[in-house]
Amino acid sequence: MSPVIGGCQCGAVRYAMHVDRVEKPHVCHCRMCQRATGGLFAALAGCAKSKLEWTRGEPAFFASSNLAKRGFCRDCGTPLTFAYDTPEARIYVTIGSMDDPERAAIEGQCGLEGKLSWVAFCEEVPGGVTVDSAAAAEFYAGMKSNQG
Ligand SMILES: [Zn+2]
Ligand SMILES: [Zn+2]
């Protein structure tokens, strides 16, 4: 299989995910993802950070909270990545920025606490809320949003 490639709308930033299959393709309905993308949800698919190569340019990053950074093209603003700062975490790229988004059919949904009442989207795909366990509650309890 060829790498999963994509980039921003102006072409200044291009990436290659050196994987046969993306990991955890999903949408997140949480308010932070809505605001970060300007969309109704974020659509994201991941790979190990070491498997993502910037093949042209590099994104700028905004620390949307003290726990995660979001990459975007500084020239055209296209949202490109989401990653937690934890060292073992994978990085996610926005499915819409892929040259072939068909390679990232979503398998899950999260952030359902923020899902808009009038969004009927892939209703059969399993999903959950952001804080769905004691471990998640502890992790997010320390979160400080940098969104204004
Ligand atoms: Zn761009
Ligand atoms: Zn989210």
Quick overview:
By secondary structure, this protein is mostly beta strands. It has 2 helices and 10 strands, in the order E-E-E-H-E-E-E-E-E-E-E-H.
Structure description:
The chain is mainly beta and 148 residues long. The protein has a single domain (4-141), classed as glutathione-dependent formaldehyde- activating enzyme (gfa). It contains two helices and ten strands; from the N terminus they run βββαβββββββα. The chain has helices at residues 31-37, 134-141, and strands at residues 4-7, 14-17, 23-28, 42-48, 52-56, 60-65, 68-72, 79-84, 90-94, 108-110. A seven-stranded mixed beta sheet has the order 6-7-8-9-4-3-10. A three-stranded antiparallel beta sheet has the order 1-2-5, with no helix packed on it. The N and C termini lie far apart (42 Å). The mean pLDDT is 96.
Give the tags.
148 residues; mainly beta; glutathione-dependent formaldehyde- activating enzyme (gfa); 7-stranded mixed sheet; 3-stranded antiparallel sheet; 2 helices; 34% strand; globular; binds zinc ion
